[in-house]
Specification:
By secondary structure, the protein is mainly α. 83% of the residues lie in helices and 0% in strands. Helix 2 packs antiparallel against helix 3.
Length: 110
């Protein structure tokens, strides 16, 4: 009975502790840099959300293709169902991210 309560409680306490330590250490580091006269503009990051939507779109298309090919593997081969689905999902999802990386590198060179 105690394990059913203690395990989730310990998990969430650990996650909270890690996040708390990360945020306080980052705050202390930034405050000391500002005290030393470092320009605070280095803390801001510019994100390009157009590339993120392309990346997530390609990842989802890759996952969908992986599910489709996994279905064909399940239907027409003697491989176990889990092997076909999971291997194809990871394969096509990874290929989509690799292709996205290549496209972003080409765009950055232009």
């Amino acid at each position: 009975m105690a394990e059913e309560i203690l395990i989730p409680l310990a998990f969430f306490a650990s996650v909270f502790g890690i996040i708390y330590v990360y945020l306080t250490a980052r705050n202390r580091e930034r405050m000391s840099m500002i005290d030393k006269g470092v320009d605070p503009s280095i803390f801001t990051t510019k994100r390009n959300y157009a590339n993120m939507t392309l990346k997530f779109g390609m990842l989802l298309v890759g996952i969908a293709l992986g599910i489709l090919v996994g279905s064909f593997i399940d239907e027409y081969t003697t491989l176990p169902e889990e092997v076909g689905y999971f291997s194809m999902i990871f394969l096509f999802g990874g290929l989509a991210l690799i292709i996205n990386s290549i496209l972003e590198d080409r765009k950055a060179k232009q």
